[in-house]
Design a protein that fits this description.
- One of its GO terms (cellular component) is mitochondrion.
- With about 375 residues, the chain is α/β, with parallel strands linked by helices.
- It has two domains: about 190 residues, Medium-chain alcohol dehydrogenases, catalytic domain (Quinone Oxidoreductase, Chain A, domain 1, Alpha-Beta Complex), CATH 3.90.180; about 130 residues, NAD(P)-binding Rossmann-like Domain (Rossmann fold, 3-Layer(aba) Sandwich).
- Helix content is about 30%, strand content about 20%.
- It starts with 14 loop residues before the first strand and ends with a strand.
- Bound molecules: NADP nicotinamide-adenine-dinucleotide phosphate.
- NADP nicotinamide-adenine-dinucleotide phosphate binds next to helix 2, helix 4 and helix 5.
- The site of NADP nicotinamide-adenine-dinucleotide phosphate has 25 residues, from helix 2, helix 4 and helix 5.
């Protein structure tokens, strides 16, 4: 309990367990589990204890070195067991942490506050970190459960910004999205529902499609259609029936390839097609007629860019608004499908922690798996 109090001379820095890499490459080849002491608390630093951190698709691209937001490589993590003092980066970009110790000159943060990271590339796949107030954003955790908080800063915020910043959507308007069962897609459904916006949700067909449809409906999805059904010649009429002839103003795409092209066909005059991911790793083509006759705008969104150009205060306000909109309930574990991976136990070997992590990473990369992998820290 000592560490729960503001700075105490008897406070002992905890040992941190982390998933680190020293060079870019295939995650299986370059990731390792690493145990190190946290640097001592100073009057201007904080010690935080991570509670839960998800594995997101962009984290993998970042380790591969193909993601524009780079991780922080630093020698501050200490010396490797083989005696080499290398620059290491901690993987992961999202997660929730609790402040466990506060330097005596810091007045606006307290032990017990819940925070998320204020920048990407901080490294969240770890049990503990030493940091500064500038790197964290405190939020109101009264109404939110652990898993919801751990997955709050990237996907729900991306959904919120895309529904708000590109076109003005009024109650009763229609939007369409592919990859609708992604975590972002599920947040889009929930926020749109709160605003009274109708969603047409495209998912890949699968044997248990009815279960998926039931789940998305329970979140507030208005209509759900598979990518196979979308290609059917009758679909145009069906969607017209759904919208009552109203135009679809916004399309959100995290898949690319054929479905991104197909989805564009359903946008109305002056519609906006926003790409924020490329899960199929396929490019998509844009027929000239969409540009010439319908004046459809093809744009992109990147949350990291928004974070860079907006203040910590603006981000804090957005988080609190998203929490209200998503109607999180502290007692319900999460609104997205997820699998908890208990991780970071102080008595577990680095080898065992690495293997546990890699097995979660495998599942997170498998298509049709449908469950976000979330490290729940056991420290
Ligand atoms: N631009 C930004 O700021 C931003 C922010 C957040 C996320 N993203 C991006 O958004 C995307 C979704 O992220 P997330 O965390 O929400 O993902 P997630 O929860 O892990 O879900 C992955 C989604 O991708 C689909 N998928 C996987 N492999 C696919 C393939 N080969 N072809 C077609 N669909 C495939 C899955 O559908 P199945 O169930 O059919 O496999 C599922 O809908 C990622 O590309 C991520 O990088 C971008």
């Amino acid at each position: 309990m000592l560490s729960r109090y503001r700075f105490l001379s008897s406070y002992v820095s905890p040992k941190a367990r982390a998933i680190v890499f020293e060079k870019y490459g295939n995650p299986k080849d370059v990731l390792r589990a690493y145990t190190h002491e946290l640097p001592p608390l100073t009057p201007t630093t904080l010690h935080i204890r991570f509670l839960a951190s998800p594995i997101n698709p962009a984290d993998i691209n970042q380790i591969e070195g193909v993601y524009p937001a780079k991780p922080t490589f630093t020698k501050e993590l200490g010396i490797l067991p083989d005696g080499e003092h290398k620059e290491l980066a901690v993987g992961g970009n999202e997660g929730v942490a609790e402040i466990i110790a506060v330097g005596e000159q810091i007045k606006d943060l307290n032990v017990g506050d819940w925070v998320i990271m204020g920048r990407s590339g901080f490294g969240t796949w770890r049990t503990h970190a030493a940091t500064t107030p500038n790197d964290v954003i405190r939020f109101n955790n009264k109404e939110i459960g652990l898993i919801q908080a751990a997955t709050l800063s990237v996907n729900p915020c991306t959904a919120y910004r895309m529904l708000k910043d590109f076109v003005t959507l009024k109650k009763g308007d229609f939007m369409i999205q592919c990859g609708a069962n992604s975590s972002v897609g599920q947040s889009v459904i929930q926020i749109a529902k709160a605003w009274g916006i109708n969603t047409i949700n495209i998912v890949r067909d699968r044997p248990d499609i009815e279960n998926l449809k039931t789940h998305l409906k329970s979140l507030g999805a208005t209509h759900i259609i598979t990518d196979r059904e979308l290609r059917n010649y009758k679909t145009k009429g069906l969607i017209k029936e759904w919208t009552g002839g109203n135009i679809i103003k916004l399309g959100l795409n995290c898949v690319g390839g054929e479905v991104a092209t197909e989805m564009a066909k359903f946008l109305g005059q002056n519609g906006t097609h926003v790409t924020y991911g490329a899960m199929s790793r396929q490019p998509f083509f844009v027929p000239a007629s969409h540009l010439i006759f319908k004046d459809i705008k093809f744009l992109g969104f990147w949350m990291s860019r928004w974070n860079k150009t907006h203040s910590r205060e603006e981000k804090g306000e957005m988080l609190n608004e998203v929490i209200k909109l998503m109607k999180f309930k502290k007692e319900s574990p999460a609104d997205i499908a997820f699998e908890e991976v208990l991780w970071g136990n102080q008595s577990e070997s680095d080898e065992s922690l690495k293997n546990k992590f890699l097995s979660a990473l495998d599942k997170s990369g498998a298509g049709f798996h449908g469950k976000k992998q979330i490290l729940k820290m056991q420290s």
